[in-house]
Design brief:
This protein is an alpha+beta fold. It contains 24 helices and 17 strands. GO terms for molecular function: ATP binding; sequence-specific DNA binding.
């Protein structure tokens, strides 16, 4: 526009003179007139273009001089202000403003004339008194020594209304956030974005102190994985809302209980966590006190029952010997608490019966009892069996599978033959026991399970830990309440009771058979390498074939394998094989067919045992 105005200021007469004011020759005057006509025509076209442009501008366009007289404008000026074409040309620009706005615009115009450009927001007052928010922009220029300001104005009523609405909404939400009694917290990753006074004071901090902390400091150590899992569940879309109850830390160091709701939202384009929480310490402590009182009543009941002496049976466990009375006491004490239990005993002594008795008398009695034979699970399936697996984790798996920890949630996990547990699995299992959670195979979400461990073994776990075959931290985590089950040969007084019980069980409802005195004496005199399980099988066979049939043909005076081989007249190689075969058979019987324990008792490797069994026809 300024260049156009400068070009148009040249008069037609000036083009009729040559340099130094001399008249042009007659021969060139016609050419000059033709050039002048063409220049005027081009100027007219150019002016028409700019006129069209000015009329089409979305806001108001104006051009005024340094005396603030409006020289040019578009129709929008008349439409917005209400002044007619004649009135616009005769008024000062400042007529459109009142009060402080008039001074603001006057100073802004001065700045534009000095600096060359500028911008200001103000309110136009129309002819009929209406007020319209407008944003003005302008640039200054000089033409033929005079100063002019050209600019545009845009109606910002809608923007101002939106800003006002936003300010009112923000003020309302801030008022609600401050007045509400519940704590309100907004967090993004590991940083607080907002917290109201109720949230900060709940933890004993000022709002500034609270916002300077990180969200993880809120929860007490055992509950931090719980909050991490909660955040991951919301972020992944697994849940839209989660309720929580957790133990947290106060500024003074004491603990408080907080419960509330968590929602995953988008705040200013960022995935954020919105928490509302309230202090429920008083209610929770009262609840815990009631639980403790109920636990004390349970203990009193247990102590009362444990004072009963000379018990002949305890649930499905039978025995009146002193050794078994001590076992009953330990069962009652273990059932009264929640600590992990380890049961030691030879194969067939009833370790699972003891574990079930503890579970049945504990506060977890209504929840699952999940028995796991650690020695029977292939090494490559251990992790998926314990922690479960997600769909597609293995070839051919078309659905999620629960693991033992999922099944035992709220109840008891019985780990039979715990000494066989893979040492790498012990690490992950220990983390789950200590509240760190576990991850199913093929998954990435951390899961948590509330379970009690009761383990059983016939090995010396302390020696295994010292030898590096078991992690010491895992050993001490499960070895809290040890119970040692005596072998049957160390409680021979219980053999008649057990025999009578099994006679009753297997008599088939046809009247209880009576054991002859000699048979009962043989039963008491036998060494019982298979313990109660072996006695049970012997009684069942006795009722079937009407004779005692022990693992060893002569229970009291069994022949040595070497003597038997010599009597059979075998050569050296044959006798050696007979002795080897007899020793392996005996070891297998004593270890109830368990290959690892059999190999260990014979002092050979498991691989060597399998090779010999195959060669001797024992496999």
């Amino acid at each position: 526009m300024p260049n156009t105005l400068k070009a148009s200021s040249k008069t037609p007469e000036s083009s009729l003179h040559t340099a130094k004011g001399k008249a042009a020759p007659e021969s060139s005057r016609g050419e000059q007139l033709q050039e002048l006509e063409e220049a005027l025509k081009a100027l007219a076209n150019e002016n028409q273009f700019f006129e069209t442009l000015i009329r089409g501008l979305p806001g108001i366009f104006y051009c005024f001089n340094d005396k603030l007289q409006v020289l040019r404008w578009n129709r929008n000026v008349e439409t917005v202000t209400g002044y007619t074409e004649e009135e616009v040309g005769s008024i000062s620009l400042l007529t459109l403003f009142k009060g402080g706005d008039k001074n603001l615009i006057r100073n802004s115009i001065k700045d534009v004339f000095v600096n060359g450009e500028g911008l200001a927001e103000s309110t136009i007052v129309t002819k009929d008194g209406r007020k319209i928010p407008y944003m003005f922009t302008g640039v200054s220029t000089r033409i033929n020594g005079a100063s002019y300001l050209m600019g545009m104005g845009l109606d910002i009523s809608a923007r101002k209304a939106a800003e006002q609405s936003l300010r009112e909404s923000e003020a309302l939400y801030r008022l609600l956030g401050e007045r509400i009694t519940e704590g309100v917290v907004l967090a993004h990753k590991n940083r607080f974005l907002f917290a109201n006074e109720a949230a900060a004071s709940m933890f004993g901090y000022t709002r500034e102190e609270f916002l300077a902390k990180t969200p993880e400091f809120m929860a007490a150590e055992p509950f931090r994985p719980y909050f991490l899992e909660l955040y991951q569940a919301l972020e992944s879309g697994a849940a839209e809302e989660r309720t929580f109850q957790a133990r947290c830390l106060h500024k003074l160091g004491n603990e408080l209980w907080v419960e509330g709701k968590a929602n995953f939202i988008t705040w200013k384009g960022k995935p954020s966590l919105l928490l509302t929480a309230r202090d429920v310490t008083e209610t929770k402590l009262r609840e815990l006190s009631m639980q403790e009182e109920a636990e004390n009543l349970r203990r009193e009941n247990v102590n009362l029952r444990s004072s009963m002496r000379d018990r002949y049976r305890f649930g499905n466990i039978i025995g009146k010997s002193t050794a078994m009375q001590e076992v009953y006491e330990l069962i009652l004490n273990a059932a009264a608490g929640s600590a992990n239990v380890i049961i030691y005993g030879e194969s067939g002594t009833g370790k699972e019966l003891v574990a079930r008795a503890i579970h049945k008398m504990s506060k977890r009695a209504d929840q699952p009892f999940v028995p796991v034979n650690c020695a029977a699970i292939p090494a490559n399936l251990l992790e998926s069996e314990f922690f479960g697996s997600r769909k597609g984790a293995f070839t051919g798996t078309h659905s999620n599978k629960e693991g033992f920890l999922d099944q035992a949630n709220g109840g008891t996990l019985f780990l039979d033959e715990v000494g066989e547990l893979d040492i790498m699995l012990q690490v992950k299992l220990l983390r789950a026991i200590e509240g760190g959670g576990y991850t199913p195979v093929g998954g990435n979400a951390v899961k948590f399970s509330d379970f009690r461990i009761i383990a059983a073994t016939n090995r010396n776990l302390l020696e295994q830990a010292r030898a590096g075959k078991m992690r010491e931290d895992f050993f001490f985590r499960i070895h809290i309440i040890p119970i040692n089950l005596p072998p049957l040969r160390q409680r021979r007084d219980d053999i008649p009771l057990l025999a009578e019980h099994f006679m009753k069980v297997y008599s088939g409802g046809q009247g209880q058979a009576v054991l002859p005195g000699k048979v009962l004496n043989d039963l008491v005199a036998y060494d019982w390498p298979g313990n109660v399980r072996e006695l049970q099988n012997v009684i069942q066979r006795y009722l079937t074939v009407n004779r005692l049939d022990f693992i060893s043909p002569e229970p009291l005076q069994a022949k040595a394998p070497l003597s038997e081989a010599v009597e059979n007249g075998a050569d050296l190689r044959g006798a050696t094989e007979n002795v080897e075969k007899a020793l392996i058979k005996k070891a297998l019987d004593q270890n109830r067919g368990h290959k690892s324990r059999t190999a260990e008792s014979l002092g050979i490797s498991r691989k060597t045992l399998f090779r010999k069994m195959k060669r001797l026809g024992l496999s």
